Amino acid sequence: MQILDKNKENKIWPLFRLGFRVFFLGGALFSAFAMLLWILSLSGYSVLSGVSNPIWWHAHEMLFGFALAIVAGFVTTAMQNWTGVPGIKSWPLAIVSGLWLLPRLLMPLRGELNGLVILLDLLWLPIVAGMLARPILKTKQWRNLFFVPLFVFFSLLNALSYYGAVSGNWLLSERVFITTVLALTALITVMGGRVFPFFTARATQSPKIEPLVWLEKLSLVSIWLVVFAWLLLPRSSGANTLLALLFIVAGVAHLIRLSRWNYQLVSSVPLLWILYIGYLFIPLGLLVMAAALLKWGVTISLASHWLTAGALGAVVLGMIARVSLGHSGRVLEIRGLMVVAFVFMILAGVLRGLLPMIVPSMTMQAYHSSAACWIIAYGLFCWVYWPILSKPRIDGHPG
After folding, report:
1. Which of 57, 195, 220, 305 is most deeply buried (CB count within 10 A of its CB)?
2. What is the pLDDT of residue 79?
């Protein structure tokens, strides 16, 4: 069913015809730039002159600047398919993406304590939540209402992160950032369950694996319990032990879940194996988080990077590569530079998560090499996908 007016669509700059275009390209480009600034900052260069806490900036911008921009692009685009209501486009999309971009540009110069930076950054996520709510309420598709409170939750976490920065409460900021990491991980597991088996069946011409109800409930309930337990439980030995047990249950459940998704069939399909390897970082990361809570020689920061540099980086890169092809009217197939990008992204996760565990003396080298791999991976995406995302669909359809 055609739900878009082609004549009106042709008057819109292609970058603002659907959310995936501006947010995928902008988020990927920003992540590579932010990672470059992070490497330079670690090396002693004064590239974050306005920032009082570079670690806070790095964590905040990779989560609320990069990851949530990608989520916003994906959901605002998918909502059109789910509801049949035209998605956000034209000047409303330009405004909300501008509200996302301005704090990213201003923060290195003005800092995370600047009132204008804070105000602008606290606006864009609630606006996205409102834009998602409109088509859901119009069509009464309550199944997809999940994304509205989720964006409200991320908005509250963003506000709490700034409160932690302004009050100088690093422990609060760290709790908020890890909660955000876990919530994004949980979102990947929700979306992964929806689409990974379908993608696999379609690409490999094999039967779609039907979910086991008890395993789905155990996997999703346990990981969302981890999210809210991390945010709300007091920090004590007893609470940490309970939380570690939750992490172990969630990790094992997701490992079993992944093992059922015909992973044996995906080795020849890059758009699939990047997603499966990315997803594998989730149960591994959850188990390493449990080890950190039990003080088994791993820090929380190191454990969380299994979920960020590993799972988030790889799954996001795989998804934006696939979605961008599909929504631009192209064949779902990649080769050459994008395969190289996928390899470098996996290397980024392995180097950041595993190398410091095996050779602690090489932790700083792990930071630099992982960041360099990230820059190459997302830089290659921007190079390959710039013409795809900034030009009209090749089939002439709107979108």
Report:
1. 305
2. 87
Token code pair at residue 390: 């900034």
**First-to-last C-alpha distance (Å) of the chain:** 13
**C-alpha neighbours within 13 Å on the C-beta side of residue 350:** 7
Cα–Cα distance, 216 to 201 (Å, whole number): 19
Residue 121, classified by CB atoms within 10 Å of its CB into exposed (0-12), middle (13-18) or buried (19+), is buried
* Residue 50 CB contacts under 8 Å (≥ 6 apart), including other chains: 107, 108, 109, 110, 111, 114
Query: Residues 257, 320: one domain?
Result: yes
Examine the domain organization and report whether 161 and 175 are in the same domain.
Answer: no
Shared domain check, 162 and 185: no
Provide the token pair at 378. 């997302």
Contact 227, 184 (CB under 8 A): no
Identify the domain containing residue 39 by its residue range: 1-168
Instruction: Report how far residue 18's alpha carbon sits from residue 182's, in angstroms, rounded to the nearest whole number.
Output: 28
Q: Are 38 and 58 in contact (CB under 8 A)?
A: yes
- Same domain for 59 and 107: yes
CA 255/CA 260 separation, integer angstroms: 9
Q: Residues with Cβ < 8 Å from 392, sequence gap 6 or more?
A: 10, 14, 17
Residue 299 amino acid letter: T
164/175 same-domain check: no
Residue from 386, 368, 384 nearest 36 by CA: 368
Number of domains in the chain: 2
Residues 270-324 have pLDDT tens digits of 999 999 999 999 999 999 999 999 999 999 999 999 999 999 999 999 999 999 9
